[in-house]
Amino acid sequence: xxxxxxxxxxxxxxxxxxxxxxxxxxxxxxxxxxxxxxxxxxxxxxxxxxxxxxxxxxxxxxxxxxxxxxxxxxxxxxxxxxxxxxxxxxxxxxxxxxxxxxxxxxxxxxxxxxxxxxxxxxxxxxxxxxxxxxxxxxxxxxxxxxxxxxxxxxxxxxxxxx
Length: 162
Prior knowledge:
Shape: globular
Low-confidence stretches: 1-53
Number of helices: 6
Largest sheet: 5 strands, antiparallel
Helix content: 40-55%
């Protein structure tokens, strides 16, 4: 069993408000809910694959990071979906950023964003150059562009599988 992952999540909880983490829980668990009995697919019954164009969330992620760095937590939280908005106020976000900078050092700069998907969510990871140690800003977007998760992490935390 990999204990590194367990340690990673314990450290993550120290820097990310529980309300922000809790907002992701329904997204991760609902992917496994089955509403109808499953039956084998045949060529005739298999649905045709639908390819939506990939959504480019790199710039919105950088815009949100810029708002965090400027201290405009009201603007950041305006991007949140309804669930996250109820759970993570601008004040909670401001405290989380302050706590993160106490642990990792003050923000100096960021690297290029890297976008991936997790289920039907778009995940953008932005490496952070912090004064004490490297970090990562991670933000998750729904297909409608609303923010469903926002994290201040240590570098190298893997994206959870759906």
